[in-house]
Amino acid sequence: MEQDRLEQQPGKKTDHPSGEAGSHTSIGKVHNPEEIIAFPASLWIELISTTKSTLFSIKSVSQLSVDKFNDPEFRKYARKSIAQDIKKIDSVLNSLLNYIQINTPIVKSNTIHLLLEEILGANETCLSDKHIKIIKHFQKDLPETFLHDEEVKFLLNSIVQYALFSTPPHGSIGFLTRIVEAQRMEGGDKVISLTGRKQIDILVAFTDYEEPFKATDRVPSEGKGVPKDKVHQLILLLIKEIIKKYKGLIGFDIDEKESRTVVSLRLPLDRRQVVYYEQLNL
Length: 282
Description:
By secondary structure, the protein is an alpha+beta fold. It has helices at residues 2-8, 33-38, 41-66, 72-102, 111-122, 124-129, 149-166, 230-245, and strands at 106-107, 133-137, 172-186, 190-207, 249-255, 260-268, 275-276. 43% of the residues lie in helices and 21% in strands. A five-stranded mixed β-sheet has the order 2-3-4-6-5, covered by helices on one side. Strands 1-7 form a two-stranded antiparallel ribbon. It is elongated, with a radius of gyration of 31 Å. The protein starts with a helix and ends in a 6-residue tail after the last strand.
């Protein structure tokens, strides 16, 4: 009891069992923001979104209730008061949501897969009209390349267009992604391995058959089986210009006997961990 009275007197320091002088037990504890973020960010975001939705529902119902009052001055005051209070609460919720988002960076991955899906979606009509089967073997959590997303989209779209032109009705187009030992061109046509370095390999195979990735000993390489028609040569030239700038590789294997073409696109791996943030609420 004596200790309780001492704690209630302002300016008095008390010794606690922990040995820390002056550490009071207060009712309203101020939490460190990091302690708040320790709670799963996804749950916080869901809670805030739900609260914001409920808040605006309350605002709508309140406005309807206010309209029932006979005094016009009171209606005006009530509307303004409700709107201001809700705006204040919403502002606090937005600040908390923005704080969570800037402290919860999202690791960027699988961009190549997402771009491929986008390109295939844009060509869905052509694929359906030709009854082309799509087969995908994607490596999980594929790392990023340091090429810009739009440059990667250009490369992938060019190869997909080439595949669409070349694949007969009821054929198939396969996509395979993987991480391989890095290589580079030297002396015009010589490929050398770069020990300890990795590249992203994107294989695109198209054929008359239903399974484009059947076993083969043939390895796609630059200069092997390059398309002979001028349209495809132009597409290849445009792709090469981008690949050359970033020291990547593109290889072709056109097997006329098997009615199959395999394109290998090798892109440099970004060894940094690329992150991005959700858009803030302003």
